[in-house]
Amino acid sequence: MNVPCVRVSTDEGEATRRALADRDLVDQSYEITVHEGTLYIPVTDASAVEDEYEVVSFDVESRETQTMPADILGFEPTYERLGDVVILDEDDAERASRIADAIAESDLRAETVVNRASKVKGALRVRDWDILVDDTDEELSADDQRSSAPSTETVHREYGCEFLLDIAEVYFSPRLATERHRVVQQVTEGERVFDMFAGVGPFVIPMAKRGAEVVGCDLNAAAVEYLRENARRNGVEERVTARQGDVRDVADDYEGWANRIVMNLPHSADDFLDTAVRLAGEECVLHYYDIQHEDDPFGPGIEAIREAAEPQYDVRVDTERVVRSYAPHEYNVCVDVTLTAR
Known about the structure:
This is Methyltransferase. The protein is of the alpha/beta class. The protein is built from 10 helices and 17 strands.
């Protein structure tokens, strides 16, 4: 049957399949097919495939239905995938264990299954996790196990970039991939970008791939080490500077430098607006993330930006965007503004 497929060389086939699978775009109802040295990967939604991939119509065979966790459980569980790690958010430990066992028995690709054991906490924005399934070390000797990577470490692929990270050491949300891509697409070659709360680099790395010079700062030393590694993995280390520390101190070295600033710390970004103004050049685009009540999701953030930037800068609001629902009657939002020096 002719279905939409990503056409790719066999040398790049596995990396492409994993990248598509991480975005749940691989159509499991059809076989991946090799024809005349080229791999054809069936996809569920051709319009969602990144422009870097070639999508064609190709005749592939139907495949036997995979066994999924819902087939074993009798209900559809809720989970999130981050590379080879599957993340649950279950309050009932027994239910979490049942779901984890079903995931392990199913055909879903997963080496580790974890359940959230705490909310994001502390200045480093990390969580506690209960590890329910760990297949990463099952064939290793005792000596090798002691030196192996932690089971909470994984590689996440997003819009052509890959990010090594450990969910026990750093904060990362795959749910924000579409929002990150929206911002990244605005970046042009030669820009100077400062990410004030960079984490492992989900804004920094793709912006550098578009030709920007990017400084990423984070208080979390582990996140900064992963940021440096991810810059190397993605071939942009020459355009990325990773700085560890409080951005209010790091900003001393970059006053008036930035053409674009990312402030993705929605619970307390307003505390750092004075620092953002210090970083801003003559004209600077600011991506400000906030969490506010549905009655006025954008007003408080815009008011805080104006209070910090005026009269030194004119403030033009470019975009008001609801990123996602955060809690009952609360939204995670982004305000894009342009600061122009008077």
